[in-house]
Amino acid sequence: MKKKFTIYLFLLFVIPTVKAQVLFNEDFNSYSAGHLINDYTSTTPQQGGWYSGTTPPVTASAMVTPETGKGNVLVITSNGTLSFGAVSFRQAQGVIDALWNNRTAGNNILKVEYEFYGTDNFIGNCGITSQGSTLINVVFNSVFKRIVCNYWYATSHRELILKNYNTDPFPYNMWIKAEMFVDYNTKNVYFYIPTLNFQKADNFSHSRLPEGLSFGVSSLNLSSVVKFDNIKITALQTLPSYILSSNEQLAAKFNLYPNPATKVVNITNSENMLVQQVTVYDVSGKLITTQNFNEQAEIQLNVESLASGTYMLHLQTNEGTAVKKLVKK
């Protein structure tokens, strides 16, 4: 019995690794305490393959620092040379795309995650770049009191606000984990902040692949302290169940009637979410039509020209994209 139990445990822990492949992992634990890199103006990779970003001057210091319960973390503070401190880091061009291109076949979902801690003033972010622009990232912005996510949609960026802190206290002085997903199978992006229980989802229509990894912070004052830890890139075969449920929860807030419809379908929702665009696809995934709306909470969609059949409506809103099924008589 003991032998059988041991085999079971081995299978339990080995099988998931086939579906989730860690491509890159930075926890700063392999470095000695002190500066992450020795030359903040260097144009060549230094310790860990990192070098400072492309926006001089660097006006902050990034120190590898032991922290109780976490091992080493990266602590960034203003160096006081200008009013607001800033520094950024990135991996050399070609590192991330090589890792992605050599991933296990079928692992077509990109997952990026990191942990962030901030006090006082800061605009901190971490994410993936592609063709010189942001592919996906999450930004913690205490200056404008919000947490936002950015992603490449088709020919430009889109931004989703995960949380506005106009009235609620901003989450200072705590470690916050951010997770981002680019699903190349379904052309969807997902954002999840488990520490604060924020979730958003949207679609995209491009073929850009991950090429670079960068993180950094700006707008630091002399009292600001920002920390980064556990930056990780993973190639997944399937989405985690908690991400799928996020998309389903958004769709559940919308109501379509009549459904089946003949000429017009009414689209309403229970939380006054504003609809910006409705894209209609057939069941094979073919784009049929797109209609734009002026931030409307309730809309009437003319479907008279559609042939009889089943369609998927992608509702672009200020909270993300909800997908609803429509039957046309």
Automatic annotation (TrEMBL):
The protein in question is named: T9SS C-terminal target domain-containing protein
Q: What are the record keywords, sorted?
A: Signal
Secretion system C-terminal sorting domain location is: 256-327
Leader sequence residues? 1-20
